[in-house]
Amino acid sequence: MAEKKASDIIVPQQGGVMRNILNQLKLIFRLMGDRRVSFFAKLVPVGAFAYLLFPLDAISLPIIGVVDDAALLWLGSYIFTELCPPEVVQEHMKALAGNMNADSSKDDVIDAEATDTQE
Predict the structure, then answer these.
(1) DSSP 8-class letter at 2
(2) pLDDT band for position 97 (50/70/90)?
(3) Half-sphere exposure of 33 (CA within 13 A, CB side)
(4) How many CA atoms lie less than 13 Å away from 17 in the CB half-sphere?
(5) Are the C-beta atoms of residues 98 and 15 closer than 8 Å to each other?
(6) 23: number of CA atoms within 13 Å, CB side?
(7) Residues contacting residue 51 through CB under 8 Å, at least 6 positions apart
(8) Do residues 32 and 41 make contact, with C-beta atoms less than 8 angstroms apart?
(9) Is the pTM of the predicted complex or chain greater than 0.70?
(10) CA-CA to 67 of 20 to 30 Å: which in 3, 43, 58, 119?
(11) Separation CA 69–CA 55 (nearest Å)
């Protein structure tokens, strides 16, 4: 049997799925308030949110109905950010990133050892 090669893929730990969802929501709200974004582009997330609140679903199966709502929200947010001017999106993304991309050389490293205590 051939040996498995170690993967060279490194996934940075930046908060996970919830942080990405919250950052995407913040980005959408910031873009909705920006005058440089087209009025018609702003109708996309409004329509996706209205569909979520609408009592009838396109697919009424118990589990698939929830999945199609989530997929439509994701698709709406994706299309909206694609319709916005790229420089405006980048500007808001940099503002949201804030100090998350701070220089790692400034991090303090404390060298210590763990010991067990018996009482």
Answers:
(1) P
(2) confident
(3) 6
(4) 0
(5) no
(6) 16
(7) 69, 72
(8) no
(9) no
(10) 43
(11) 11
